[in-house]
Design a protein that fits this description.
Elements (H helix, E strand, L loop, with lengths): L2 E6 L4 H16 L3 E6 L29 H4 L4 H15 L5 H10 L3 E5 H6 L13 E3 L1 H6 L6 E5 L1
Parallel strand pairs: 1-2, 1-5, 2-3, 3-4
Helix pairs in contact: 1-4
Length: 153
């Protein structure tokens, strides 16, 4: 059986949607998918933060603006607003709904135990669809076997 293990370490809109689209596409193709949210990626499953994700405009070459412009007041909000309009135009679900879709399609959603300790998050701070909290070692054990690919975003 094929399986994709996606590690999400950032909760900016472009990284979150890339991980979600890849996991959803895998599920649609009959490929088992698991998402591991670590460090800032935890914000994508944090109940109070997941609907307020942004696009990083400084140090993000994909934004195609010089760093000095990306740092101007309002640029991050502007870029985030533009990205959210494109997401809506393409009829992609908002983050909270996308997480429900992923969970309902059988995608496993895991939070990183160490990152939760670092940021002082409790399991009740996270979405109900979460399958649990794992150590890195436990996540790696889930990746054992043939046909497993791991992707770090």
């Amino acid at each position: 059986m094929k399986k994709i293990m996606i590690i999400l370490s950032k909760a900016n809109l472009d990284s979150v949607y890339a991980a979600f689209v890849l996991a959803n596409g895998a599920a649609m193709e009959g490929i088992e998918a698991e998402l591991f949210f670590t460090f800032f990626g935890l914000d994508a499953i944090h109940k109070e933060k997941l609907n307020d994700l942004h696009i990083a405009t400084v140090g993000n070459p994909g934004v195609h603006v010089p760093t000095f412009l990306g740092g101007l007041p309002g640029m991050e909000s502007f870029a985030s607003s533009m990205m959210k309009k494109e997401i809506d135009r393409l009829d992609l679900p908002p983050v909270s709904e996308f997480l429900e879709i992923l969970s309902n399609s059988g995608c496993k959603l895991w939070a990183c135990k160490l990152a939760m300790k670092i940021f002082h998050y409790k399991e009740e701070d996270l979405i109900a669809e979460l399958d649990g909290v794992l150590t890195v070692g436990d996540f790696y054990k889930r990746a054992e076997g043939e046909g497993v690919h791991m992707l770090f975003i």
